[in-house]
Amino acid sequence: MGQTFRAAKNTIVLSSDHKKSRLNKTRSWIENSMDWIRVVSTDGKRINSDGPDSWQSWVPQNRPITRNKRQQSGPSMQVWGALVSGPVLFVFELPERGDSRNFMDFMEARVFPVLENIAPANYVLQQDRAPAHISAHSLSRFQELGIELLDWPSRSPDLNIIENCWSMMSRRIYDGRQFLNKDEPWRAIDSAVTEINVNCQDQLKALFVSIPKRMLEVVEKKGSLTYY
């Protein structure tokens, strides 16, 4: 199976400012030979008991898109994942309140101890520009903890390789199933992450290999969305 991924439905609209930011960032990373092995790619995702709910799911090229929805949706949970060179994927459940204080408490209590053990010593944290990630409180705490952040351009899921991991994980979580409570999907998440880490090392390594190609494509397309 090819390692190229696509959006199920492209709803990402880039303004001229977004394109300019993407172009400037990628040019800078290329010119400065960014070491992507240092970068910990992160993202959050909602997991629904009744299957995928977003037409922005990322699926492998040439794989059919399946939607399996109840008329009334069941319980859901918000998860946060990170992909670390090695490679290793890990996923946590996020706190229900998504404000910056709860987010940083979660990061300090759950995530940073894991990264200290498995990430490169000089790792750089990549995250999107969600309000909880870039608030004054969060940025201050990141600085106090000595966490280096990657200045990430807005509206750039095509450059974030963990987006592709969500697709790999979703196929294993749902697989035509629906869940009655939050415990069942979490067990499925845990099983899917374990299976990916054990049996999908080649696919995960291919994602890291694809990063420079993604950056070059942004430059070639003058900041527009890539094929990934």
Order of helices and strands: EHEEEEHEHHEHHH
The assigned CATH architecture is: 2-Layer Sandwich
Query: What is the first-to-last residue Cα distance?
Result: 15 Å
Uncertain parts: 1-9, 53-61, 63-72
CATH H-level superfamily title: Ribonuclease H-like superfamily/Ribonuclease H
Tell me what you see in this structure.
The protein is an alpha/beta fold. It has one domain (38-65, 74-220): Nucleotidyltransferase, domain 5. Helix content is 43%, strand content 16%. It has 7 helices and 7 strands. The strands form 2 sheets. A 5-stranded mixed beta sheet has the order 5-4-2-6-7, with helices on both faces. α2 (100-118) packs parallel to α4 and α5 (162-173) packs across α6. The protein is globular and about 50 Å long. The two termini are 15 Å apart. The model is unreliable at 1-9, 53-61 and 63-72 (pLDDT under 50).
